[in-house]
Automatic annotation (TrEMBL), chains A, B:
Residues covered by the Homoserine dehydrogenase catalytic domain: 136-314
Protein name: Homoserine dehydrogenase
Alphabetized UniProt keyword annotations: Amino-acid biosynthesis, Methionine biosynthesis, NADP, Oxidoreductase, Sodium, Threonine biosynthesis
Binding site for NADPH: K104
One GO MF term attached to the UniProt entry: homoserine dehydrogenase activity
Enzyme class, UniProt record, top EC level: oxidoreductase
Superkingdom, natural source: Bacteria
Length: 406, 406
């Protein structure tokens, strides 16, 4: 007797994997209504055993048990990291099983080839949870907004750095102090490099840029700056300018080509990205007909991320026997150099160098003053290309730092 | 010879209708990629002729030409109003043609019965553009978030009133002054009642509440308050409380039942809805696993709204021969009375009635002071039910006004 349940396997019973199982359990009725049939977790792959766990009996240690079971239709890869996740995903797709994943590192590095492999095997490869946690972003891009000419995507894609920047701003605390507190609270990893150096946001914008361009944007090609150089005085100047400081990840298509970068930016208060605070993520998309839409939500967290994985599982079950098209070919995308991008820059120098600033950057520089900060001079340049800015900055004595304006 | 183009008819060649045709023209390549086949506007129904218009030859004056043409698969109703739109939509569905519309008035009043009629005829009835303009909200609710137990939807659903409130707040100008300017700029109708009295937001939350409950929430049952009583002093108090004043439309499911209302609310700055300014709309959805997600964008405008209609057309073409399920039955939803909802209220009275306020509302009332405002007294109550608040307010002398806290 055949039952009418779609069989799912979860690879990795950690935070996200156990969240996926929990969503499938807790919302079983809603899930089956949405998918058109009930879903059953048949296997959970993990190196560990989970004695006493409700799903103890589903835990296996051998991927082949899963791959050789013809009943399994969907595989959720929630292990993270490149290997063995990549090998498992490839073998699953080759075995005619659809795969969905929250693994941004893997999707950024190999997503396009896995989409092509899925197409070849007439199954699907989905990764909603890899960007923006539970925010239904990728499905909207691939579905409701697919008929738009999207020319820019800008996002706050890393909750840890946004939390740190928000705390520094609101409490006037130094980067190291806030980072330490965030680590104590579990908002930041013990090794915070991936977050604070912008590497995590870089992986995520690489995925969005690949979807936007239809080609593979290699994350190694993306200019990436983290938030470690931002100091508390920067926030005081930002307030004087009616701006927030945010780590933005962006990709843009214009007459200069296709360009993507990750860096801290001064964002005017009137831009809704400026008021995205704490661990929240937000992604703003501009389409030629639609104008701007923004999606906002928690970019991480067990249940939110798991809910996005489950949305993919449901989509796969609804499209049984069909490949869900994703606009992402393995061909390498060519990015424009950042040199041509034109913007204003905020600059701080050690001495009162107003005269020098005007000599180097022209009379249009706008002086920014804070009575509370002494022994330095700050200004905003007129719009200038990245390349020209870099060249001119060399001519200034004693530069303390600079931040781009959005 | 049969061509491979899905044939579309547009009813009403006004702002949204001509926008739909423009989106289909301008983004033809993207549209056909998304739909899987090209789309052709075969007919445009309007009372007027459009000599010189690119689509002059498609204009017809008789609905029967469209309904009797078996080639037409999709009908976009962009006429607005109840009749003759309702009759045309019904006849189209009965003729086996799918319908999509931006007509919020009609969807609020008859949407659920039209969804049922579509199901009976194995076609689809979609209305993404009826709420939130171009924001891909309904499709996300019906798709990516369908496996969530959604227990609350709160939105700023009317751009005109949000523009007026924003201007009053930022410029300290009176309601009438700002309204007049908004009318001059075309942001408000000459007869502004539908917007400023909250009727438009009420229609939209009725649609969202129907989707959330799966039944027909009648808009006449929704408690609705507009913004005409908000005055400039309210914004000064709001600032003292670190809050904005927003016209919120909301529906909530909790132990008291299912409840929906439209009214101005004081919204704390830390809530992202507080910083939604100008003509923008935003809708926050809370799911049991997902937590909060918010969608933000222009809630009106020709091309944004048209883009949402086109997204529906594409969805229909992709699901040819299938009814797209919408969670909305014609059965009437039972709403809880607002009496039981518990919240804080902000109250202004004519004289210095602190003692009376404490007698009536208890010692927990919080006094709100503005040095710039004289001859009155303002306070915030402790959490209290709507019913108790109403009863107690009668005991206060000379009440000038009150606003709910979100």
């Amino acid at each position: 007797m055949e039952d009418n349940m779609a069989k799912v396997a979860v690879l990795g019973y950690g935070t996200v994997g156990s969240g996926v199982v929990e969503v499938l359990d807790t919302n079983a009725a809603e899930v089956s209504k949405s998918a058109g049939e009930a879903l059953e977790v048949k296997y959970i792959l993990d190196l560990r055993d989970f004695p006493g766990d409700k799903h103890e009996a589903q835990v296996v240690h051998d991927i082949d048990v899963i791959l050789n079971d013809p009943e399994v239709e969907v595989i959720c890869e929630t292990m993270g990291g490149i290997e063995p996740a990549l090998t498992f995903e490839k073998r699953a797709l080759e075995a005619g099983k659809s795969v969905c994943t929250s693994n941004k590192e893997l999707v950024a590095a190999h997503g396009p080839e896995l989409v092509e492999l899925a197409e070849k095997n007439n199954v699907s490869y989905l990764f909603e949870a890899s960007v923006g946690g539970g925010i239904p972003l990728l499905r909207s891009l691939n579905d409701s907004l697919k008929h738009e000419k999207v020319d820019s995507i800008t996002g706050i894609l890393n909750g840890t750095t946004n939390y740190i920047l928000t705390k520094m701003d609101k409490e006037g605390a130094a980067f190291e102090t806030v980072l330490k507190k965030a680590q104590e609270k579990g908002y930041a990893e013990r090794n915070p490099e991936a977050d604070v150096e912008g590497y995590d946001a870089c992986r995520k914008i690489a995925i969005l840029a690949s979807l936007m361009s239809g080609k593979h944007v290699h994350y190694e090609d993306i200019y990436t700056e983290g938030i470690t150089k931002i100091n508390i005085h920067d926030f005081e100047y930002a307030r004087a300018l009616n701006m927030s400081i945010k780590l933005l990840a962006m990709c843009k298509k214009n007459e200069n080509g296709f360009f993507t970068m990750v860096a801290p930016f001064l964002v005017p208060y009137e831009n809704p990205l400026a008021s995205v605070n704490g661990v929240f993520n937000a992604i703003s998309i501009h389409g030629n007909m639609l104008g701007d839409v923004m999606f906002y939500g928690k970019g991480a967290g067990k249940n939110a991320t798991a809910s996005a994985v489950v949305a993919d599982v449901i989509d796969i079950v609804k499209h049984k026997g069909k490949h869900i098209e994703i606009n992402m070919k393995a061909e390498k995308a060519v990015l424009s150099p950042k040199d041509n991008a034109v913007r204003n820059f905020f600059v701080r120098v050690s001495d009162d160098l107003e005269e020098q600033a005007r000599e180097v950057f022209g009379n249009g520089v706008e002086v920014v003053k804070r009575n509370s900060i002494h022994g330095e001079f700050a200004f905003v340049t007129e719009p200038i290309s990245e390349k020209d800015f870099e060249e001119k900055l060399w001519k200034m004595d004693s530069v303390k730092g600079y931040i781009r304006l959005y």
